[in-house]
Specification:
Helix content is 78%, strand content 0%. The longest helix is centred in the middle third of the chain and has 53 residues. The chain is globular, with a radius of gyration of 27 Å.
């Protein structure tokens, strides 16, 4: 193995430059998607389409990147963080600029929802991966700083997009923030790789093998001219009939071997996934995360439109509700992450509590009849949405570090699929009822159901083996043993 692929994480030094570059990359990429609720009313007024159809734009930009997270991670592993970040910068910037020329909502679904969403997924995978490479002991702090970039980006972009729309219109706003997204490319320039990507290792191994073959190549043997001429003649006569079938046979064999190999890999992956889903607590995590994302992303898209439609605010607020949610989410990520360091804290029950609190806040939105109340609810929803920092801890303790990547990918698939469904369903409910009340009641009920499901699945393990909370790194064969030691 190459020495460049076995370097120890420095836990500082150039790593802090990586943290700053990754922070800015997430800020520039996720700024507009995190504040898409500001653009949503403008798209409704511009294209005059239904709320359900228009909601697909905001749901896809958040969900596509999560569903494609295994592909994004594979790209980073094979090609490295720097090339992937450069490519993602082009995708995010190009998708935003292309959205400025959208003739209808269907075009926006592709340009903003899919292109920008995939670009954001690539940025997230690249920045998190290279940060983990540079940090070991301080990895939690470094990741906390990096992921806060999404919240600060949403806070800044919500206000900036309002100003840009007032000054330059919707098209000018999208062009400007698309230009800002090009700054992701300079951020990628600072991402000096600590470990060589798999693609370069394979290329170098192939070159080394080729060079070795040349060195070991035998000297040419002098042949009899008569026999040589006879062999050449035989080749010229029979070459057309012999070489083609042999080539076709070898190609067929190679294809069959490749198909069998891939089939074996996929069958092993499905079997491993089935083993994970047999874990009662992990299955409850998947269900609760699905139900949570089905309802929790509704206010991110519709809350600003609700305030304007109900006459609770005239025009555009100086600090939009989306900005309040974003900055509160940043605070929530940091505080909830710090709470994980408390010895007696159980992350499963903490996560279930955040889901229950989110559900209650969503149910209070329809009965809130003033803008100040919506601001308070936005802050509460934003703070509890910081529970994303709890998910890796919870997954590690229930499943184990060895299978964290696989388990986290499954959770993100459930989350991304749910995010893509939630806002459009809420929009269709509004198109049917001409009111957001039922949409928020449904959203809050789903989130409450998800929290209750997770809480009840782990409740029977609360009092078992609590004395083992000081050994969080050992592997557990019993579900209750894992739950009791989650901290």
């Amino acid at each position: 193995m190459s020495t460049g692929n076995t370097k120890k994480a420095p836990d500082g030094g150039w790593g802090w430059t990586i943290v700053i570059a990754s922070f800015m990359g997430q800020l520039l990429a996720y700024g507009s998607p995190q504040s898409v609720g500001v653009l949503y009313p403008e798209w409704l007024n511009t294209f005059q389409d239904s709320k359900g159809m228009t909601a697909w734009v905001g749901s896809l930009v958040s969900g596509v990147g999560l569903i494609a997270s295994p592909i994004c991670s594979a790209c980073v592993v094979n090609f490295g963080a720097r090339p992937v970040t450069i490519f993602s910068g082009v995708m995010v910037s190009g998708g935003l600029m292309l959205s400025a020329f959208a003739p209808n909502v269907q075009f926006l679904i592709f340009s903003y929802g899919i292109v920008v969403g995939l670009g954001c997924g690539l940025v997230y995978a690249a920045t998190v991966t290279i940060t983990c490479q540079y940090f070991d002991k301080r990895r939690g702090l470094a990741l906390g700083i990096v992921t806060t970039g999404t919240s600060i980006g949403g806070f800044l972009y919500a206000t900036a997009q309002n100003e840009f729309i007032a000054l330059f219109g919707l098209d000018g706003c999208l062009l400007l923030i698309g230009c800002f997204a090009l700054n992701i490319i300079p951020c990628a320039g600072l991402m000096r790789p600590l470990h060589l990507p798999a693609y370069y290792l394979k290329q170098r191994a192939a070159l080394a093998e080729k060079a070795e073959d040349k060195v070991l190549e035998k000297a040419p043997v002098v042949e009899d001219p008569i026999k040589k001429n006879q062999s050449v003649t035989n080749v010229l006569i029979t070459g057309e009939t012999k070489t083609a079938p042999a080539y076709e046979k070898s190609l067929h064999v190679v294809l069959m071997q490749l198909l069998k190999k891939k089939q074996k890999v996929y069958s092993e992956y499905l079997h491993s996934t089935g083993e994970l889903l047999q874990n009662r607590v992990f299955s409850a995590m998947c269900i609760s995360l699905f139900l949570y994302c089905l309802g929790a992303y509704t206010p991110l898209l519709f809350l600003e439109d609700l305030a304007q439609g109900e006459g609770l605010i005239d025009g555009i607020s100086t600090i939009p509700l989306v900005s309040i949610m974003s900055i509160a989410a940043g605070v929530g990520k940091l505080l909830l992450g710090i709470m994980m360091d408390i010895r007696w804290m159980n992350s499963i029950f903490l996560y279930a509590f955040t889901l229950l609190g989110t559900g209650v806040a969503l149910l209070m939105i329809p009965i809130t009849k003033n803008y100040a109340g919506l601001q308070v609810i936005s802050a509460v929803l934003g703070f509890f949405s910081g529970n994303w920092s709890v998910i890796p801890y919870m997954t590690t303790k229930v499943i184990g570090m060895d299978r964290l990547t696989e388990a986290y990918g499954i959770l993100m698939f459930f989350c991304g699929f749910s995010i893509m469904l939630g806002p459009p369903v809420a929009g269709w409910i509004y198109d049917w009822m001409h009111s957001y009340d039922l949409a928020f009641y449904f959203s809050g009920s789903f989130v409450l159901l998800g929290g209750a499901c997770l809480f009840l699945s782990a409740l029977s393990c609360w009092n078992k083996n609590q004395e083992e909370t000081n050994t969080p790194s050992e592997e557990y064969t019993d579900e209750c043993d894992a739950v009791a030691t989650v901290a």
